[in-house]
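My current task is to audit a protein record that another person submitted. Alongside the sequence sits a line of tokens, each denoting a local backbone shape. Where you disagree with what is written, explain briefly why. This is what I was given:
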Amino acid sequence: MAKLPSPCIDVCKYKRAGHCIACSMTKDQKRAFKALKREPQRRGFVQLVIAQQAVMGKFRAWPDVYARKCRKRGAPVPGLPEG
């Protein structure tokens, strides 16, 4: 099974108090995700980003774009809210 990809969807515009307008992660969070090697840690981190998206995510297409990224890489699609 393929590794879960980063929640980043390559928009990378930091306008909301240091959070990306698309994935809602900060630069530090993106750097931290890259350092995670074990799959349970990666899944847990993605769940945190999903919760963060629920609170501050304004980019409504993020769940669909991230799910497509996961499928393309052969990774399981995490439980994302319906857009």
Q: What stands out?
A: DSSP finds three helices and two strands in the chain. Residues 39-56 form the longest helix (18 residues).
